[in-house]
Amino acid sequence: MLYLSTFTFPGEEAETDFMFNLKTTYDQSVYPYRILPKAGLDEIVFRPVTILYGGNGSGKSTALNVIAEKLGLKRNSAYNRSRFFESFVNRCQVTLEEAVPPESRIITSDDVFDMMLDIRSINEGIDRKREKLAEEYYELKRERFRISSLDDLEHLRRITDARKKTRSRFIEGESGKTVRERSNGESALMFFQTKIEPDTLCLLDEPENSLSPENQMILSDFLTDSVRYCGNQLVISTHSPFLLAFPGAKIINLDDGSRVVDSWTELKNPRVYYDFFKKHADEFEGN
pLDDT at residue 194 above 90? Predict the structure, then answer.
């Protein structure tokens, strides 16, 4: 499915005019001006899967944030911007094939990290509750209690419960199960699987962060199916060879003047992996 057809950024000439009228050469406060012209990124013509590749500081995240802001996509976490961000977005042009569905969103690494922090906070609260329940368990087992009214029935139930159960079973029953049943990587993978709705446009900023190679492959398979069977359009910024190998994806190399590459295998990052494993091939084959 194709919702977003083209996106045009202001371009170097328009940015230079803006800076001239502002009477300044360069200042961090004018972000995101002066970022994308360095990468030669003036316009993106999209496919169902479009990938932005480039090193740190190449402008991948900036481009995704600008597109998301222009389209009004849903997002969770705050992002880097300046007082000139809105004027930059207003200078951008967009062409749509179809109206962007309301559940479309951008997902960033910060979204995933914030989710992990939320889970950690919940688990820390549960852990503190369990420590308190452990103390209460022994107090209930030793307590001599005589019921004097119906109001005492609940407390009597807890005494009986403590005397019938082991410490661990009592605590588990009183506190509920901890959220900590998945690793960070598994939680991150589940986050993508639950946040990406069918029939939507989704922008993913380096989704491989926090994912093991195995989970990156699972994510790649999930994203492939979401495009093939669920009507999704994806725009992804990534270094991951598992995502760069996405079948049929259009890859734009911001490290090379925003050139559309012929094959993901020509990119530097996958070549680093390839050369490393080729160097150690005998060690793998010997096993």
Answer: no
Q: What is the residue type of 91? A: R
Q: How many CB atoms lie within 10 A of CB 268?
A: 13
Q: Which residues contact 95 (CB under 8 A, 6 or more apart)?
A: 5, 6, 7
- The torsion angle over the Cα atoms of residues 217, 208, 202 and 90, rounded to 10 degrees, is -150
Return mean pLDDT, the chain: 83
Domain residue spans in the chain? 4-111+196-286, 113-175
**Entry pTM:** 0.77
Distance set, CA 154 to CA 137, 157, 177, 287 (Å) = 15, 5, 22, 62
Percent over 70 (pLDDT), the chain: 75
Can you list the pairs that 20-23 forms with residues at least 24 positions away whose Cβ atoms lie under 8 Å? none
Contact between 244 and 50 under an 8 Å Cβ cutoff? The reply is no
Q: Does domain 4-111+196-286 have CATH number 3.40.50?
A: yes
